[in-house]
Specification:
Layout lengths: L2 H72 L9 H15 L2 H12 L6 H20 L2
Helix pairs in contact: 1-2, 1-4, 2-3, 3-4
């Protein structure tokens, strides 16, 4: 091989390696950007899921508290032993944590009603809390 052919061959190899490096750099940059976008989307999804699970937990705690007097009346194991005043305070706090105006209105019916007239709003409270939990779990 003559000297010019070897030089030409080396130049072609050099250009090929430079173009390969540029190609991998550009595709690597795009991949890194895509990875960053996917990570950001996953972080946003994680935050949304945490918020949703927090709301479900708030409804579940309120539902659990509304059932406590029934457990006591039926002689079932109760999670906490409280007076009616403490129970109402805990239920009020749990209801407020849901930030659900309809549930808060139903709670007001329970607290403002006569003892014999609280059965209907209590059942409405339980029904609404369960439907809210199911709605959140279904993604609505």
């Amino acid at each position: 091989m003559d000297k010019n052919t070897v030089i030409l061959f080396l130049i072609i190899l050099l250009l090929a390696s430079i173009l390969t490096a540029v190609y991998f750099y550009l595709t690597g940059t795009n991949t890194a950007k895509n990875d960053q976008i996917q990570i950001k989307n996953l972080e946003n999804s994680n935050k949304a899921l945490q918020q949703k699970s927090g709301r479900v937990l708030d409804y579940a705690k309120a539902l659990d508290l509304i059932l406590e007097p029934s457990r006591q009346q039926l002689g079932l194991d109760t999670k906490i032993q409280t007076t009616k005043t403490e129970w109402l305070k805990n239920l009020s706090d749990a209801t407020d944590r849901t930030k659900d105006l309809k549930l808060q209105d139903i709670f007001k019916e329970i607290t403002n009603g006569a003892p014999e007239a609280i059965i209907v709003p209590t059942v409405q409270y339980m029904d609404y809390a369960i439907k809210s939990i199911l709605s959140l779990l279904a993604g609505k």
